[in-house]
Amino acid sequence: MQIALFDTTLRDGTQSEGLSLSVEDKIKICRLLDGFGIQYIEGGYPGSNPKDVEFFRRSPELGLKRARLTAFGSTRHAKRAAADDDNMQALVTAGTPAVSIFGKTWLLHVTEVLGTTAENNLAMIADSVSFLKKHGKEVIFDAEHFFDGFRADRAYALAAVRAAADAGADWLALCDTNGGSLPSFIAEAIRELKKVTKTAIGIHAHNDGDMAVANSLAAVEAGATMVQGTLNGWGERCGNANLISVIPALQLKMGHTCVPDASLKRLTELSRTASELANIRPRAHAPYVGASAFSHKGGAHVAAVEKLPASYEHVTPESVGNQRKFVVSELSGRGNVRMVAKDLGMDVRGYEPALLLRVKEMESQGYQFEAAEGSFELMVRRSQPGYAEPFEVLDVVVISEQRRGSEMFVEATVKLKVGGEVSHVVAEGAGPVDAMDRAFHKALDQHFPLLRQVLLTDFKVRILDPEAATAAKTRVLIESQLHGDTWSTIGVSQNMIEASCEALRDALELPLVRAAGAGAKG
What we know:
Elements: E1 4-7, H1 23-36, E2 40-44, H2 50-57, E3 68-74, H3 86-93, E4 98-104, H4 107-114, H5 118-134, E5 138-144, H6 146-152, H7 154-166, E6 171-176, H8 183-194, E7 200-205, H9 212-222, E8 226-229, H10 243-253, H11 261-264, H12 267-278, E9 295-296, H13 299-307, E10 325-326, H14 334-343, H15 352-364, H16 373-382, E11 392-402, E12 408-418, E13 421-428, H17 432-444, E14 455-463, E15 474-482, E16 485-493, H18 496-517
Parallel strand pairs: 1-2, 1-8, 2-3, 3-4, 4-5, 5-6, 6-7, 7-8, 9-10
Antiparallel strand pairs: 11-12, 12-13, 14-15, 15-16
Helix pairs in contact: 1-2, 1-12, 5-7, 6-7, 8-9, 13-14, 14-15, 16-18, 17-18
């Protein structure tokens, strides 16, 4: 069965706390959605703010090929005819082929929030839908609080959506606005609605009970043929139904069609690109598309996946554009070490026990290699016969002092050996780690021009045993980047400078040994 997807990232998604999209961001996301195969894209609320006004003004330049751009608004004012309502006029002048309007279906909202009568609310719904249909719009009626209304007074909730259907609405999108319903109740309400109308039904679920995806799928099983949601589940409070999870469930598990098969393989790309545009860090443990969605850590799991991936994977990572990952930690078995090394293009058969023992010993001291895959990769590479380190750290001195009442002064002195040549350099920095990083680069960049392009992008410090106070052991994680490729390295010591130095050394050694392994010149 064909299931229509209605994306409201640009409207409902922007109500997520901490998320703000510029007009340019909205245009880019809109094109992404269209290219992916989404059928409806809700662009915003015409007239509600300058940003949405500008977006709809520029909508003709979008060049949408598949999606129907949709404007959003409410039913007419309680004391004004639709033809005289500014909101209705704004929806028409937005120039979109489809319009989504919400109306009240819960008597509590009708009388206490709108402050009108049950009968007038039905008239507002019918008048608004009829007005938009007369202007040639495809109308999606968002039955706000439908499930709460159905629970409180099912006769009135059904009457409200019937008013929209009788006025010509093309879709009845049932909203679990407070996000507190359960799948069984969603299905029951939809089955009851189908008894009194033949109009197509959609579902608009919020995630306050962590059920938005489950409720959306239950709605489809009960007869809904449209699912509304947002990219990555963004939205007000706890968010909306996550289309990134809904799409593969519908297509891979339930046998429905909602996007082209080729698009499904770009699902991870869609999720992460949208996160980048929204300046939101992707959730590592997100189903299907997270960096950890197909990661395997336990030794028994890895041993099974090595033989048969389906033994611990509900879908193949390739089907949604993701990839399998093996994690090494103190919980690992030899298979973890072997599979990670294989992914790196190295054969460590026969070395696995020694490497695994080393990992477990170091993790007992506070190292965490699942968070520092770069340092583990170096451990593996260093275990290979004939490994030669590209440089040797001889001395590191860091001075931090306040001189003559001025600001704190930080200076790092680093002595390194590259081949037979010793470099002895001094660099100042904003802090001890910055000074060391500058000194390392000052000493090494002249020998290895590749390192000039390596950037330190993140620096994290964690106190492992705070009860030890100032004598506590410190874990330092450094994230580095080169040409879009990132890696993390780790250092652990009671001395934060020593831990940072260890992580920095690994961060700069790794790209050099990778380049040497690939036959590149330093």
